[in-house]
Design brief:
The complex is a heterodimer. By secondary structure, chain A is mainly α. Chain A contains 12 helices and 1 strand. In chain A, 61% of the residues are buried. By secondary structure, chain B is mainly alpha-helical. Chain B is globular, with a radius of gyration of 27 Å. Strand 1 of chain A pairs parallel with strand 3 of chain B, so a sheet runs across the interface.
Chain lengths: 306, 664
């Protein structure tokens, strides 16, 4: 019960902090003060208190979009183990459910965008559809690296058998998985080099333009869902990179929080030092991530590890 | 025995009411009611009987004398037959109800009797095919099925493209059946009879003969199933047929190819591992080619037809994983692969039925299948739109619907194979994982595109803005199908019970090898939590907005204040960034006239995306064969005298041969 409470508290409480950390890091690089660390919490709170304006073109699907997206990422967060190797909704084969729950959220974000009839939002949805499709193989190949040694498509089991003791030997393969997952994280969360959350021109946006017409509590859901998504995919990466104890406890929670914070800073650094890729280059970036994971997988088989 | 008897009576009832529709003469209305009632009753009875047989594990067989010189009338029920019977009767029953609503618009315009007769005949032939246990009976049912569906495809035969599509289909299915003739002839060599029991008892050992049989079965049954590259008839035939027929053909008829392949595999002894790798390769290519070509389509039904190729690919991935597991005597991998493939057969029948029926309703309401001229239909056709959305989520394999369950089984089978099989075969199984992931991502792109462009936004044409919701007869099967999709998705444990007996039969496993009951309950839990979260957030949103100002306005046009519906994003634009990296795989013809001068009045852009298999392989190959054959034309000059000379020469040659033979 205590584990469950910790899991839910981390899942609900921590995500908005990561967005604040990213912005702080970027501000530091730019020599600005930047918005307060807790700005995203304030934004969500403010938006929850507002009314709403809906386009006359939209239907119930537009209103369902943010709800289903948020429910799907929260559900994915309940499937993935966070501060330990157990999770409230985990089961044998939960890895597939995890990936497909994100797919469900994305499906509804994209249909909600098309519901407005705006060509800008259509453009954003189209790019999101393309990039997420190309990110899927990278995600599944790096998940395969994680779960082939365990022989199980189950997060709890796979994390339990990650070879921390032999980290030196398996190092390259898991580094490949981690790098590939990091690329997926950047793409799935609309960060540079795939998308720029700070862009001002509708024509160049991907995620931001899809949610252009959402306002009030709907937009609060959208904002919160994107923070949760970053947190959840980040937690997966942290599990691959850090030896979070199987039974969790305070060490698990501390490692997870530390890892997530480091990750947010890393994302901020990437955003500060890199320009965004040209749109036609993005699929190459994601296919590159998939190839990296495939090479890691090949190395794993070559060693005869599984 | 009772179940088999009910199935036989259902088949007889289908044929009888079909015939009665023809004999009803001038009254199309009476014919429609009669044959629909007959097929609904028959399908209901058949579905219940086969379901009961499946759950109780009933086996029955019946032999009777057959007046033909070869073969005998031998029908039987086992788990595999019962499972496919459930699929056939379920989807056919729903399609029949839909057809009754769909065909009503044609009353007085054309004779309905042939369409009704062949529909019932098609269902009867599929049911007979699944229970047939004799090679000749099987092939007869197979041919009746092919021909009945040919006549259904060419229902509107005054249109040229329909006749063309029909001819392509006819030629493809007849070419396919040639492989089956050879297959059964080869199987008979070992068994010395056409009886399936004898085939199975002879169980061709792993040898050159078994390999030949395997390739023949892949070619013959694969043509019907729609494996790449012999899927080429499918995207033509489905749009040409009336929508309830498309639903039936895509939902169950192409699965008869899968049934045939699975049944043939039971005759062939233990499979070598490379069969599994071959089937996985076919699955990867069919799945990716299907979904990519689907993305390129603008014709709603043609798009759905390509998705059938994609889903057949997914089924093939399951079969391949099952074969790999079976060949390595790994019961759990074999079970997961086969169970996933079989469940996907049922699932695809259900959601593709909904999608084709919804597409038919759209066509019915607007008179067009071109998605670029539709839009905003969810306001005018709310139930159809909701059903299409549900079908889309299901076909993309997303939770909490049924498509997720079957894809989950295949994924977990492949992951398990990747860890416990020898390395070469582990990699083959692992190839299924990124392929399934990419197929899933592309399918989501495609269904967001089609749902968004057809049902959301503003209407792009007069026809779309005056559309009306379909009648109750057409909505009922969509709603029922949706309910089934939801129930399998939320309660997969029940669905597993349906496929488990057939999967153990295919894998030749002594019992259900490992319990998937745990994960199935867990999937239920995930689905319930997901739905509860959705409900909770919806209530939260409602509570927050209560009493606050909620205004309506125009969509934000980014500063432009006079947008028209024509400015909305089109399906072609939507698909472009997804297709761009695959440009080499899809032949593209573009005709473009850019705006010219200072005040350009017009510009023109035209793009045609073809089918790679057809344009790059099949058409050139056919042309080459025809050219080779045309060399023989030299001897065919049309002069009667010359032909008489041929006859005389042949007779003389035979005479000489005979005399030389007897002289020795």
């Amino acid at each position: 019960m205590a584990d469950f409470a910790v899991h839910v508290a981390l899942l609900l409480g921590l995500p908005p902090l990561l967005l604040g950390l990213i912005n702080k890091t970027k501000a530091l690089f730019a020599g600005r003060n930047g918005p307060p660390l807790l700005q995203t919490y304030l934004d969500v709170w403010k938006l929850l208190g507002k009314g709403a304006v809906y386009s006359r073109t939209t239907t119930w699907i537009f209103r369902a979009g943010p709800i289903v997206s948020l429910a799907a990422v929260l559900c994915a967060g309940l499937v993935l183990p966070l501060a330990s190797n157990a999770s409230p909704l985990g089961f044998a084969g939960d890895l597939v459910a995890f990936a497909y729950l994100f797919g469900l959220g994305r499906f509804f974000t994209m249909t909600a965008a098309l519901d407005t009839g705006s060509s800008f939002e259509g453009m954003g949805a189209s790019r999101e559809a393309a990039f997420s499709a190309f990110a899927e193989p990278a995600l599944f190949l790096s998940l395969a690296i994680v779960c082939v040694p365990a022989g199980s498509a189950t997060f709890g089991v796979a994390f339990g058998t990650l070879p921390w003791a032999t980290w030196g030997i398996s190092h390259p393969t898991f580094l490949a998985a981690a790098l590939s997952l990091f690329a997926v994280l950047l793409a799935e969360n609309s960060r540079i080099p795939v998308d720029d959350p700070n862009t001002h021109l509708e024509l160049t946006m991907v995620h931001e333009v899809m949610v252009l017409d959402h306002g009030g509590p709907d937009f609060a859901f959208v904002l919160y869902a994107s923070a949760v998504k970053l947190f959840v995919i980040g937690a997966l990466l942290v599990h691959v990179l850090l030896p979070i104890p199987a039974d969790g406890g305070w060490r698990g929670a501390a490692l997870l929080c530390g890892g997530e914070i480091a990750l947010a800073v890393a994302v901020g650094v990437v955003e500060s030092v890199m320009a965004r890729l040209r749109l036609p280059r993005v699929p190459q970036f994601l296919v590159g991530a998939a190839v990296l994971a495939a090479i890691g997988l090949a190395a794993l088989y070559y060693r005869g590890a599984p | 025995m009772l179940a088999l008897a009910v199935v036989l009576v259902s088949i007889a009832l289908l044929c009888a009411t079909g015939l009665a529709a023809v004999l009803a003469g001038r009254s199309d209305r009476a014919a429609l009611h009669l044959s629909t009632a007959g097929s609904v009753i028959a399908c209901l009875a058949g579905a219940i009987a086969s379901l009961a047989a499946l759950i109780r594990g009933e086996q029955a067989s019946l032999r009777a004398a057959w007046p033909l010189p070869v073969g005998q009338l031998h029908v039987a029920l086992d788990a595999l037959s019962s499972f496919f019977l459930v699929c056939v009767f379920l989807v056919s029953g729903l399609s029949a109800v839909y057809g009754a609503g769909y065909l009503r618009a044609y009353i007085g315009k054309r004779r309905l009797a042939p369409a009704l007769f062949f529909f019932n005949l098609l269902v009867a032939a599929m049911a007979a095919l699944v229970i047939a246990r004799d090679g000749i009976l099987f092939l007869v049912a197979w041919e009746v099925m092919s021909l009945a569906s040919y006549f259904l495809v060419t229902f509107e035969n005054e249109r040229e493209e329909v006749r063309r599509a029909g001819m392509t289909y006819l030629v493809a299915s007849q070419l396919g059946v040639v492989f089956l003739f050879v297959l059964f002839a080869m199987l008979r060599r070992g068994a010395s009879t056409y009886d399936f029991d004898a085939f199975a008892a002879a169980a061709v050992p792993a040898s050159g003969l078994a390999n030949t049989c395997f390739w023949l079965a892949l070619a013959g049954f694969g043509t019907k199933a729609g494996f790449w590259p012999v899927h080429i008839w499918l995207p033509d035939a489905h749009p040409a047929a009336p929508s309830h027929v498309s639903a039936l053909m895509s939902g169950v008829m192409i699965k008869m190819g899968i049934y045939g392949l699975l049944r043939a595999l039971t005759f062939l002894g233990p499979p070598p591992a490379w069969w599994g790798a071959v089937v996985i390769a076919i699955g990867v290519v069919s799945g990716l080619a299907g979904v990519l070509h689907a993305l390129a389509q603008h014709d709603l039904k043609r798009l759905l037809a390509y998705h059938s190729v994609e889903n057949i690919g997914i089924i093939a991935l399951g079969i391949g994983v099952g074969l790999l597991g079976q060949s390595h005597h790994n019961p759990s991998i074999a079970f997961l692969g086969y169970a996933g493939a079989l469940l996907h057969v049922l699932n695809h029948g259900l959601f593709k039925g909904i999608l084709f029926e919804a597409a038919g309703s759209v066509f019915h309401a607007t008179g067009t299948r071109d998605i670029e001229s539709l839009g905003g239909l969810s306001r005018r056709m709310p139930v159809t739109a909701a059903a299409f959305l549900l079908g889309s989520v299901a076909i993309c394999g997303l939770p909490p619907l049924n498509g997720f369950v079957s894809e989950w089984l295949i994924y977990v089978g492949a992951f398990r194979a990747s860890a416990s099989l020898p390395h070469a075969w582990a990699v083959a199984a692992l190839a299924a994982v990124p392929a399934l992931a990419l197929i899933g991502g592309l399918a989501a792109a495609c269904f967001v595109k089609v749902f968004g462009v057809v049902f959301l936004g503003e209407p792009r044409s007069e026809a779309a803005s005056t559309a009306h919701e379909a009648g109750r007869m057409m909505l009922t099967p969509m709603v029922l199908g949706s309910l089934l999709c939801v129930s399998i998705g939320i309660w997969p444990a029940a669905a597993i019970r349906l496929v488990a007996p057939a999967a153990t039969l295919l894998g030749r496993l002594p019992s259900v090898p490992m319990t998937v009951a745990g994960p199935m309950v867990a999937i239920t839990r995930v689905a319930v939590v997901l739905l509860a979260l959705v409900a909770l957030l919806a209530l939260l949103r409602r509570a927050l907005l209560a009493g606050r100002p909620v205004a309506s306005a125009a969509t934000w046009g980014c500063g432009y204040s006079a947008p028209t519906p024509r400015m909305q994003y089109t399906a072609a634009s939507f698909a472009e960034p997804v297709l761009e990296p695959f440009a080499a795989a899809i032949p593209r013809r573009v005709r473009q006239e850019g705006p010219a001068g200072y005040f350009p009045a017009t510009a023109h852009y035209e793009e045609h995306l073809g089918d790679m298999a057809g344009e790059r392989f099949l058409v050139p190959a056919t042309r080459r064969v025809l050219r080779a054959i045309s060399r023989i034309k030299v001897i065919q000059q049309g002069h009667l005298q010359l032909y008489l000379v041929y006859i005389a020469a042949t007779l003389v040659a035979l005479l000489v041969w005979q005399l030389a033979g007897s002289g020795r």
